[in-house]
Design goal:
- The structure is a homodimer.
- Chain A is an alpha/beta fold.
- Chain A folds into 3 domains: about 45 residues, lambda repressor-like DNA-binding domains (434 Repressor (Amino-terminal Domain)), CATH 1.10.260.40; about 120 residues, Response regulator (Rossmann fold); about 130 residues, Response regulator (Rossmann fold, 3-Layer(aba) Sandwich), CATH 3.40.50.2300.
- Helices cover about 45% and strands about 20% of the residues of chain A.
- Chain A contains 13 helices and 12 strands.
- In chain A, the strands form 2 sheets. A 6-stranded parallel β-sheet of chain A has the order 2-1-3-4-5-11, sandwiched between helices. A 6-stranded mixed β-sheet of chain A has the order 7-6-8-9-10-12, with helices on both faces.
- In chain A, helix 5 crosses helix 13 and helix 7 runs parallel beside helix 8.
- At the A-B interface, helix 4, helix 5, strand 2, helix 6 and helix 11 of A face helix 4, helix 5, strand 2, helix 6 and helix 11 of B.
Chain lengths: ~325, ~325
């Protein structure tokens, strides 16, 4: 691989001059600049980002740690984070913790050893405080507040309210919410609170059913959905805490011969690809993932530059009306 | 951040001794080793992978360039590549080219500048030959052969044959294949060849319809599917070249009041998450993505170690019977 010195030798200028051209710093005549560029092209010169990173002590990479790459929510998030990072000349190092605390901790160490510019943490177990002393900006995505990190969430409570209000406006009298994991507190639990508050105020019957950890990790919710519906046979409106659960509710209802939206109306959460490819398509609560991703990268960048950034950000959600209601 | 020298100062040994402990090289007494470990823990020492990478001239990262992170096929691939890489202590740098040739070329340059250990290239435009001289192992994933890279594909031709054989065994007499992009040659086109060959031999009527580039990039195939079915109203069996297209075929057929599998049988391709969450679930051709991903990482690793690796690998596919047939 051609080095800076090779270019200098070929063009007959000093290595310092070549470096000036590459880094666009200091005075270089147009003639020399053109000569250096031509040699760089001819010799297929590739700048060594490693050497640059070593001098500034961090790379232009951002570590993204998620619990499941293939969960539709995280897929969409990764795609948005990659786009936001690329626009700021950062690259994404992708880490899948598979919901394993020890793998999450290991990935955090790997990110630090590789001198990432920042970390977006969507996995649930490790406390970012451990990393506070390292001065690496950390964004918490849909995790609980953490003094050592910037926490970015969508307005989960408002999302639950909007879902319940929409189902009630559609004429539903008996509502059910599938959401949350037994014994595990998550920001997403606030969807149930918003949902329940609206139902209580409106005098509409409602129930919340949670699943266990194993079902959540497997992404196969069939038995959980079936049991929830069988125990609430009068249900005429369901709010699911993800579009993935909503898609599986369509499967279970079809098998039980319950027509959607005729006999039962359904609202999902996230607004990911699957909500548009199921039959019927899923009415859902849109999370502003593009904006949340852009803010994540932006605040990591600002934090590195020493600018003041917020600790806690909550973004609004909205209803996307489709064919399941 | 604590450095090797800080640890040496704290423990009263030389930096060389600390380096020996960290790299597990040369003789160090048990007592000293324990003392160094204790100081590393207390001072939260994180090894500097950048410095190590600079000395060996490449990092333990693998660049993965895909055309669409959110296409279900690439989502599953990324997830599998991340797992295979983690098992070999590599990290994934994820790049989304959005099917833009200039972005693909830019990402390749970025990967080279950042001294990746290897590249998995799933995007279609750049010829890997440009990078042959750089001695960075490149794996071509579902792209055409390329002398400068290791090409890994599934047996697309066999997949097309299996799909046609299954539809014929289900009693279909009039088959249609949705697959391929007009004016663009891809390995996936061989699915149509296998499909057509089986139909011709069996004397079964068949037709292949391709979509244009814009539809393919948008991932919304509705108008293309609708037109294909309207021009072939006698069709009783469809083979779609992805599970995503198959999911949208279910939507279009439901709107046209064509029951699946009663009036029309459907086979997809890929075996990704959506084939299990649609209603009905989709019978599909399973691509061995786990094995293909493991081989990609394995061959990059072997290639770096100077071992001989194959140019071209084709892996078998198989039928996954679900409810759409």
């Amino acid at each position: 691989m051609a080095t800076l010195k090779d270019i200098a030798k070929k063009t007959g200028v000093t290595a310092t001059t070549v470096s000036r051209v590459i880094n666009n710093r200091g005075y270089v005549s147009d003639k020399t600049r053109k000569k250096v560029y031509a040699a760089m092209k001819e010799m297929n010169y590739q700048p060594n980002e490693l050497a640059r990173a070593l001098s500034k002590q961090y790379t232009n990479t951002i570590g993204v740690i998620v619990p499941h790459i293939d969960h539709p929510f995280f897929t969409k998030l990764i795609s948005n984070l990659e786009a936001a990072a690329a626009a700021r000349k950062y690259k994404i190092i992708l880490c899948n913790s598979n919901e394993q605390p020890e793998k999450e901790a290991e990935y955090l160490d790997i990110c630090v050893s590789n001198r990432v510019a920042g970390i977006v943490l969507c996995s649930k177990y490790v406390n970012a405080e451990k990393f506070g002393a390292l001065n690496i900006p950390i964004v918490n995505f849909e995790r609980e507040d953490d003094a050592a990190a910037i926490t970015i969430q969508c307005d989960n409570y408002q999302g639950g309210r909007i879902a319940a209000e929409h189902l009630i406006a559609c004429g539903c009298k008996n509502l059910l919410h599938f959401g949350g994991v037994i014994g595990k507190e998550m920001p997403a639990d606030r969807r149930a609170n918003g949902f329940t508050d609206v139902c209580n105020t409106a005098g509409i019957k409602s129930r919340v059913v949670q699943c266990d950890e194993l079902i959540n990790a497997s992404m196969n919710y069939h038995s959980y959905i079936e049991q929830g519906i069988k125990e609430n046979l009068q249900v005429d409106g369901i709010f699911a805490s993800s579009d993935l659960i909503a898609a599986e509710i369509i499967q279970v209802c079809t098998a039980m011969d319950i027509q959607i939206p005729e006999r039962l109306k359904l609202v999902g959460f996230d607004d990911v690809l699957i909500s548009t490819i199921t039959t019927p398509t899923i009415t859902t609560i849109h999370q502003p993932m593009k904006e949340m991703s852009e803010m994540s990268i932006d605040y990591i960048h600002k934090s590195l530059m020493g600018e003041l950034v917020p600790n806690n950000i909550i973004l609004p959600v909205k209803l996307m009306k489709r064919n399941s209601t």
